[in-house]
Amino acid sequence: MFKLKIISSSVRPGRKGPIVGKWVESSMQQLAGFEVEFIDLGELNLPMMDEPYHPRMQKYQHEHTKAWAAKIDEADAFVFVTAEYDYNYPAPLRNALEYLSKEWAYKPAGIVSYGGISAGTRAFVGLKGDLSSFRVVPLMESINIPFFDQFINDSGEFVPNNATMKAMDALIAELPRWTKGMQLIRENRL
Ligand SMILES: Cc1cc2nc3c(=O)[nH]c(=O)nc-3n(C[C@H](O)[C@H](O)[C@H](O)COP(=O)(O)O)c2cc1C
């Protein structure tokens, strides 16, 4: 079984990231052979990076870092669900990325962004570029949701339109190929 981690970027009280994230989680259940886990960075509640050593050394001092490292280390693929804050992805996601190094490496990632008229695309572009520093390979098949608020119903569920569902289908179709390929690269079996 591959392990897929869906990571929601925002931490503010009242954040809507988990509403979008839960839809991503339920959509990803279609993926045969994947065990899906949803991670809300607001729940995870990592402090600002407080480790004394470069993460490459993996000399983690704090329990929160050890737990975070174990969770990311066991992952085979990611989907980042990101808000757009001031034309970029939220700082807590950057902080969560910076905590670790090797644990991220040689793994593929889908990106789902949401926002107003921009659909979070500036956050998407920022995150996509930054992921290469962690040797995470972002997939071309992104999902960018404009005016996402209008797709949240009275029960607080995200109900996508056709365009967003098609984008999800494309991501679901690609993710297994990259996950299998990156496993070979990670284990240096090519
Ligand atoms: C600090 C802050 C900055 C924001 N900047 C943007 C922005 O640059 N572009 C955008 O489309 N929406 C922006 N918004 C509106 C967000 O799209 C909206 O509040 C969304 O719900 C934020 O995600 P969250 O609920 O998961 O925190 C911003 C919201 C906050 C709180």
TrEMBL record:
Superkingdom of origin organism: Bacteria
Gene Ontology, cellular component aspect: cytosol
Transmembrane segments: none
Coiled-coil residues: none
InterPro entries named among the record's database cross-references: Flavoprotein-like_sf, FMN_Rdtase-like_dom, NAD(P)H-dep_reductase
GO function term, MF aspect, one: FMN binding
Domain NADPH-dependent FMN reductase-like: 3-145
UniProt-listed SUPFAM superfamilies: Flavoproteins (SSF52218)
UniProt xrefs under PANTHER family: CHROMATE REDUCTASE, NAD(P)H-DEPENDENT FMN REDUCTASE LOT6
Designated name of the protein: NADPH-dependent FMN reductase
